Amino acid sequence: METTCPRCGSDTVELGEKSLEIGLTRNEPVSIRLCGNCALVFYVHIEKISKF
Ligand SMILES: [Zn+2]
Q: Tell me, what's the pLDDT at 31?
């Protein structure tokens, strides 16, 4: 999972997780992250690893 700031590339801290509604029926889990350098708040899609 990419956890560095997309704007300045600094380390970020996780504020929490939520479900983001995509369309009518889909909910994607995302991680809410805050950049400590430029204060950008952004979402990171939480990848679900499928196993056999
Ligand atoms: Zn930043």
A: 93
Burial class (CB in 10 A: 0-12, 13-18, 19+), 43: middle
| Domain CATH code at residue 6 | 2.20.25
What pLDDT, in 10s, does the model give residues 2-39? 689 999 999 999 999 999 898 888 888 999 999 999 99
Q: Which domain holds residue 14?
A: 1-52
Distance 46 CA to ligand 1 centre (A): 20
With H, G, I as helix, E, B as strand and everything else as coil, classify residue 48: coil
| Cα 41 to middle of ligand 1, angstroms | 9
Residue type, 27: N
pTM of the model: 0.73
